[in-house]
Specification:
Shape: globular
Low-confidence stretches: none
Number of strands: 34
Helix content: 25-40%
Radius of gyration: 28 Å
Strand order of the largest sheet: 6-5-9-3-2-12-15-14
Distance between the termini: 26 Å
Length: about 850
């Protein structure tokens, strides 16, 4: 049966509300019996529809009376009860089978641990319910299970009581005092160890903090615990948000479709975003864990205390909370470095999505499956929209709007319009035009041109945007003199926000700024800190790029200038200017090692081709490699000096200085990997680094170097997979390294790894590390070979049979299909046709059909 398309315009308020729900679980891995007793209120006179999927119905009673057909109708999607009183109690008993649940939605088993994932629509796999975010209720939950198999039984809220039962089982009762939709419900049962700590809130309450994981891994959870305490303190200090329950629990499991889930008081995490020590985590992993721990904690207010009316408004909580975790991460380290990392993620993931067949607005208008809303557009672009609001108003004014949002909507399910209205009310600004960012899909193009007349000392900047209607683009800006020093010139349309940052509000299709009495041509620094998520097209002199790369006070624009020069060179310009920019950045002694290493990160191939209408992947990827080979050979001695002087660097420790030095050392090795004439001693040192490094960052850096140098791929693969066989999180990084190689070995290695008997294809992390990584390896995946597309699509179909959410996410490999040559498109179309005739899941079909229709 083909699923019907859902439209935002068709939203209707619920016919009934649930005032209280009492759940009882008789837990078992093979069979679990769920009794749900809910107190309902009828809002309008209409039948009651309860969502339910793949449930075995045992009984249903209304006010104690058994219901039987024709009292209700039952379908694959749920139950319709035709008549109900105004107030009534419904008791429903269902059976579910967690060990057979390979979709990892609802209640399922991960390595012997019972766990739930209810966002977006997993609760309907547990019991028949009003599974929609605008139905908020209070839950009281009784968990019963074998004390041997499930010695730990966890649920949302506060632990009310616990006792042993006579048959080797035990019982724990939990009560959540907060109103919440069922997508925030969670339970976990299993043999788990725990790391405990506590946090004292600003009002003096003590909160118990607990991180649960497989016994023996508790030391690897310490960084997560430290990150949680930092998050709680930061949210109090910056946003004035205090935690509201007695306990805050995190559980780490291996099998999880996403990164983590913010269930009220009981977060469930993918273990890769909890475990961290020198054996299993790189420096980037330590940053990522701190960020995601913070993200899920911040959801307590932006997502839980205030939730969304319907799934079309998902960015109301996700975009806002990504913005909050980015701000937190910037405060915890270096704000310029954090901004560079956030924008790189945005451009590689979201800009590609915006340019592809599955582009959609931050607030979508329709869908087949709400599971497909969990995209880079909803998260990363949603965060950029919030950031623009902060830039326009300034931080002080923005925080006033947030305070009103928290006080006005606490305990409610609201919309994006409700959110923006809070800022209109506090700033006294009309933000109607700003709301266009939520309605339009695609990445806006902001084209800029300049002119200078030395005779009358007049300088002009012309801005043109391609959006209809025009969106409001905040352009944070500054100017430089010819010697690189800051230049201050005034214009009435460039105004400071509440924090004193100079902002030009580009609110028209076309606008010209004219500056008078300018004694020399200035060098504009536009979109500082990437103040708006747009493609900036500015045909400026290469010397201006070099000046900004060398002298701009804005770290983001120094990186942007370097990237622009790289892009121009890959697309056909001479390499000379990139070499000069690289040299000035490499030799700059005024910036930290961490910022220097971040600015000099080799520009990703996908970012270079984003604004091109057609792409010859093979030709451009060869020129890309030639450019970085030239940089590596030109600066070989300096790169070797940076690398070798840091070989004795302390490999442990996470101070900003140590992180920077370690990253800069490995950045030098990254560039040297492109060098075809690298001295043998450097290869030998890299091999030693791989074999003896005490930190995983150094291990992975050496591995990537050796793979690019083509040194023993087969032997490396077999040895590493054997040596790290007991470390699944490390294995996944090794898988990704082999699948991301820039040569034909990437396909061979990906296929071989996935065919190994120990490879668990049911684990999403394994699929993301291999198949998704390979699909995003543009220069190899899109070479136009039918066996590559066939292999990929066969696996997508296989995965769709047991986990539609994961299979749908694999469609991201085709975001740039519109740019590819005709022969590639024909091969992809043929592979997609073979997939679609096999009747894939609604999740996969929605995205696959969108790609197919563009070919």
């Amino acid at each position: 049966m083909q699923q019907k398309r859902i439209f935002l315009k068709d939203y209707q308020a619920p016919t009934h509300q649930i005032r209280h729900t009492e759940l009882t679980f008789e837990l078992g891995a093979e069979t679990t019996v769920v009794t749900a007793v809910s107190k309902f209120s009828k809002i309008i006179d209409a039948p009651l529809f309860l969502n339910g999927k793949e449930l075995e119905l045992v009984s249903i009673k209304l006010d104690g009376k058994d219901l039987i057909p024709p009292d209700y109708d039952r379908s694959d999607e749920g139950i319709t009860i035709h008549q109900t009183p105004t107030e009534f109690t419904l008791e429903i008993i269902t059976k579910i089978y967690p060990s057979k649940n390979t979709a990892l939605e609802g209640l399922y088993v991960s390595k012997g641990i019972l766990s739930t994932q209810c966002e977006a629509q997993g609760f309907r796999r547990i019991t028949y319910f009003l599974d929609r975010p605008d139905v908020l209720t209070k839950f009281r939950t009784t968990l019963r299970g074998s004390k041997k198999d499930f010695p730990v039984l966890l649920c949302n809220g506060n632990r009310i009581s616990g006792k042993d039962l006579s048959d080797g089982r035990h019982e724990v009762i939990w009560e959540d005092p907060s109103l919440k939709p069922c997508y925030l419900f969670a339970l976990v049962g299993g043999d788990l160890g725990v790391l405990r700590d506590n946090f004292t809130t600003s009002s003096g309450r003590q909160v118990n903090l607990e991180i649960y994981s497989v016994p023996g891994t508790q030391k690897q959870c310490q960084h997560a615990m430290d990150s949680l305490k930092k998050s709680m303190s930061w949210d109090e200090n910056v946003f004035g948000r205090e935690y509201d329950l007695n306990d805050y629990m995190i559980v780490a499991i291996d099998d999880f479709n996403a990164g983590a889930m913010e269930n009220k008081g009981l977060n469930v995490f993918n273990s890769r975003l909890v475990f961290a020590d020198d054996q299993v985590a790189t420096d980037e992993d330590f940053f990522a864990i701190e960020s995601v721990i913070a993200h899920e904690y911040f959801h307590n207010w932006t997502g839980n205390r205030i939730t969304l009316r319907d799934w079309f408004h998902l960015s109301l909580k996700e975009g806002l909370t990504v913005f909050r975790d980015q701000e937190f991460s910037g405060d915890m380290s270096d704000r310029s470095v954090q901004r560079l990392k956030d924008v790189e993620t945005l451009k590689l993931r979201q800009f590609a999505e915006d340019a592809g067949p599955n582009a959609h607005p931050v607030r979508p208008e329709s869908c087949l499956s709400v599971d497909n809303f969990f995209t880079a557009t909803i998260y990363e672009k949603g965060a950029e929209v919030i950031r623009m609001l902060s830039v326009l108003l300034g931080r002080k004014s923005f925080l006033k709007g947030m305070d009103l949002y928290f006080s006005r909507h606490d305990g409610q399910a609201v919309t994006i319009e409700d959110f923006v209205k809070c800022f209109e009310d506090t700033s006294k600004r009309d933000l109607a035009q700003f709301r266009e960012w939520y309605r339009q899909k695609g990445t806006p193009v902001l084209e800029v041109s300049e002119s200078y007349d030395p005779s009358d000392k007049t300088y002009s900047l012309k801005f043109v945007q391609d959006q209809t209607p025009a969106v409001l683009i905040p352009v944070q800006m500054g100017f430089l003199n010819a010697d690189g020093s800051a230049l201050y010139i005034n214009h009435p349309d460039i105004r400071p926000n509440s924090d004193g940052e100079l902002i030009f509000e580009m609110d028209q299709k076309e606008k010209v700024l004219i500056f008078n009495n300018v004694s020399q041509k200035p060098v504009p620094s536009l979109l500082r800190q990437f103040s708006a998520p747009v493609h900036l097209k500015f045909s400026r002199d290469a010397n201006d790029h070099l000046l900004i790369a060398a002298f701009d006070s804005d770290g983001f624009n120094r990186r942007a200038a370097f990237t622009d020069l790289v892009r121009q060179s890959v697309l056909g310009a001479p390499f000379d200017n990139v070499e000069k920019a690289f040299g000035s950045l490499l030799n700059d002694k005024k910036i930290s090692a961490l910022l220097k290493a971040t600015i000099l990160k080799p520009t990703h191939f996908d970012e270079i081709i984003q604004t091109e209408s057609t792409v010859n992947v093979k030709e451009l990827s060869n020129r890309y490699r030639d450019l970085f080979q030239k940089l590596a050979s030109t600066y070989r001695s300096q790169l070797i000096e940076i690398y070798t002087r840091s070989l004795g660097l302390n490999q442990k420790g996470y101070s900003t200085e140590l992180l920077g030095e370690r990253l800069l050392k490995n950045r030098a090795l990254d560039y040297l990997s492109f060098d075809k004439n690298i001295p043998e001693e450097i290869i030998s040192q890299a091999q030693t680094q791989l074999a003896s490094a005490k930190g995983l960052s150094d291990v992975m850096s050496a591995l990537h170097f050796l793979l690019r140098q083509g040194k023993g791929t087969r032997e490396l693969q077999n040895n590493l997979l054997k040596n790290y066989s007991g470390f699944p999180l490390v294995l996944q990084k090794i898988y990704a390294a082999f699948s991301s190689q820039q040569n034909d070995d990437a396909f061979v290695c990906t296929r071989e790894i996935m065919e190994r008997p120990e490879f668990d294809s049911k684990n999403p992390n394994n699929i993301y590390a291999t198949l998704r990584t390979f699909g995003l390896n543009t220069s190899i995946f899109h070479q136009g070979k039918p066996d590559i597309y066939g292999f990929y699509m066969d696996w997508v179909h296989r995965i769709d049979g047991y986990n539609p959410q994961v299979s749908a996410r694999l469609m991201g490999a085709f975001n740039l299909v519109g740019k590819l040559p005709a022969e590639n498109k024909l091969l992809i179309k043929d592979s997609l046709h073979k997939l679609l005739v096999k009747e894939p899941s609604a999740n996969l079909r929605e995205l696959a059909e969108s790609v197919y229709q563009t070919l």
